[in-house]
Each structure stands twice: as C-alpha cells, then as structure tokens.
Specification:
By secondary structure, the chain is α+β, with helices and mostly antiparallel strands. It has helices at about 15-25, 75-95; strands at about 1-10, 35-45, 50-60, 65-70.
C-alpha cells in the first residue's frame, strides 16, 4: 500500500506524520486490496477551534473512497476520518462480493 501525506498551509512535524501513517496503515486490516492512500492535512482559516481538517482518499480496485473530517486537532480529525473509511471499506467489500 502506497501512502502519501501532504500538509497544506503548515509544516507537519515527524510526530504527526508518524501518527497519521500508523492510523492509515491499520486500514489494511479491513482490506488487503488497498492500492494507495492519499492524506491531506489542512489548516483552515477563519474557524474557531475546529480548524484542522483531515482528508483521506483510498484507492481500491473498483472505486475510490473519500472521507473529510474536521476537529480541534489533526489527530482527532484523522481518527474520525479513519473510522468513516473503515465503514466505507466494509460496505465496498460487501458490494463487490454481491452481498
């Protein structure tokens, strides 16, 4: 699985990159067919408190799954996006099996 992490409007430190990489890697437990994952960590302007967004795009055979979540921290937003993607991956696998 190829993982790309981009930080937009800020420089991510090694601790944050390691956290995101670790969380994204766990998606492989839900599907071994993941081709690539692209993560965009974005610092949004103008919103009080919850201005950190995590956008995750997962490429699978037969489709692309996407989740975008915002939170008070990048870790919180990434956790929520990963949870949403776990559900999407499960549904995608069921759909591909014809269940």
């Amino acid at each position: 699985m190829n993982i790309q992490i981009h930080s937009l409007r800020f420089d991510a430190d090694k601790k944050l990159l390691s956290f995101v990489n670790q969380k994204v890697s766990k998606l492989s437990l839900f599907s071994e067919d993941i081709l690539s994952v692209e993560v965009n960590l974005r610092l949004d302007k103008g919103q009080d408190g919850e201005n950190k967004a995590s956008e995750i795009k997962v490429e699978l055979p037969g489709g692309i799954l996407f989740a975008r979540k915002q939170g008070k921290s990048f870790e919180e937003a990434t956790d929520e996006a990963i949870d949403a993607l776990k559900k999407q991956i499960t549904k995608h696998k069921e759909k591909m099996r014809g269940v």
